[in-house]
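A reminder from the course coordinator: this example appears on the midterm review sheet, so study it carefully.

Given structure:
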């Protein structure tokens, strides 16, 4: 079983490489998963109507827009440049709800709910049809002239997990020489899915499930940020790969890995277990949280460039030390612009002073050609600067080392 689970993980990883992103939607809130489900009601009206009274999961297992989450409380923190399209907020709610549902099922060891959220059973029929009517070799070899749909790609990468995750004595792959009928093959695959070992699946994929912190009840006050890594759309079919952070009351859950598909009106999802911490944004509105995160991201970015500035100073001072130079004296004499209140303008002309010129050229070689670089303070014990700084063109300053 361990080998099968390893193979399943490898097959799942293939999902990240599905073919390029689809057409950009003209209307961010049109064409949602909710609008494609007969069990869903319109959410594009008032805020009160966004929180529906119906259950978020229909009797047949297909997903609708969450009854608990507010579509206005979701925002994109990051969107990969590879994505030409993005999911609507309603679509995001569906994927978020499904991921949260799986997390709760893992945390409570609810085996049946885990089955439902992975949704292996929902993929049996289309997968079997795909295998029986498709040149599988084209997928394995990656022929450029093969025009595969998004659904076919999902079925290829996700469908092979059906027998791999089974605890059946046999695993079933279709071979044209088997002369098995479509009904016989479907029966074999169904048998594999019915014999999935959920206990081993949980202990292998989510080995720390017993220590998980309960997610708590999601509500219209819950705020969610999304880092979109991959999103592809082909008609009604979708594949998504994203990170998300759930801000729920005093708790923060960072899901650094959610992959999901939506085909034939159903959702399947696999999550990586999230990190739990205190919610430093508790009590803030979604706009306040989004603004603060962007500010923190900007500072983090500037601090990262300041780290490069610090490394450049380390290289310069190491050369001076080898030459027997007095470092404090060199810092005072060689860096008039870096030590000034204005800082060294990396977009300006090359400076004349030896140290400033060294920093200017090395920062340019590192592809930092705008903003301002600075150094401040002298640490007598280290015989070195106290910190390096960088100010972006947007006026955001970061330092290295950062203050604890």
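Designed residues:
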């Amino acid at each position: 079983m361990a080998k099968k689970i390893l193979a399943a993980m490898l097959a799942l990883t293939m999902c990240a490489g599905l073919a390029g992103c689809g057409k950009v939607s003209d209307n961010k809130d049109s064409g949602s998963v909710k609008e494609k489900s007969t069990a869903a009601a319109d959410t594009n009206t008032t805020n009160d109507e966004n929180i529906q009274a119906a259950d978020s999961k229909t009797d047949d297992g297909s997903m609708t827009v969450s009854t608990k989450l507010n579509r206005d409380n979701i925002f994109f923190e990051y969107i990969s440049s590879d994505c030409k399209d993005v999911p609507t907020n309603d679509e995001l709610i569906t994927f978020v709800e499904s991921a949260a549902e799986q997390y709760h099922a893992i945390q409570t060891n609810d085996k049946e709910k885990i089955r439902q959220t992975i949704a292996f059973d929902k993929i049996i029929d289309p997968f079997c049809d795909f295998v029986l009517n498709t040149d599988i070799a084209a997928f394995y070899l990656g022929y450029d002239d093969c025009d595969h749909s998004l659904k076919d790609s999902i079925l290829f990468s996700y469908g092979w997990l059906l027998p791999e995750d089974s605890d059946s004595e046999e695993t079933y792959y279709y071979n044209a020489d088997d002369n098995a009928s479509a009904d016989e093959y479907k029966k074999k695959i169904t048998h594999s899915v019915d014999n999935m070992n959920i206990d081993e699946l949980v202990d292998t994929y989510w080995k720390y499930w017993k220590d998980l912190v309960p997610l708590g009840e999601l509500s219209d006050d819950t705020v969610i940020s999304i880092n979109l890594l991959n999103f592809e759309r082909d008609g009604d079919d979708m594949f998504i790969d994203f990170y998300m952070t759930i801000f729920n009351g005093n708790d923060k859950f960072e899901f650094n890995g959610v992959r999901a598909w939506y085909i034939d009106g159903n959702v399947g999802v696999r999550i990586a277990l999230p990190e739990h911490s205190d919610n430093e944004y508790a009590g803030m509105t979604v706009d306040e949280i989004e603004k603060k995160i962007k500010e923190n991201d900007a500072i983090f970015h500037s601090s990262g460039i300041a780290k490069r500035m610090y490394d450049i100073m380390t290289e310069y001072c190491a050369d001076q030390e080898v030459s027997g130079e007095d470092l404090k004296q060199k810092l005072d004499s060689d860096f008039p612009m870096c030590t000034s209140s204005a800082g060294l303008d990396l977009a300006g002309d090359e400076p004349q002073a030896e140290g400033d010129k060294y920093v200017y050229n090395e920062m340019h070689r590192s592809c930092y050609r705008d903003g301002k670089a600075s150094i401040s303070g002298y640490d007598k014990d280290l015989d070195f600067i106290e910190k390096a700084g960088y100010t972006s063109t947007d006026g955001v300053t970061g330092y290295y080392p950062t203050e604890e």
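The chain has two domains: 2-283, 287-400. The chain has a mean pLDDT of 80.
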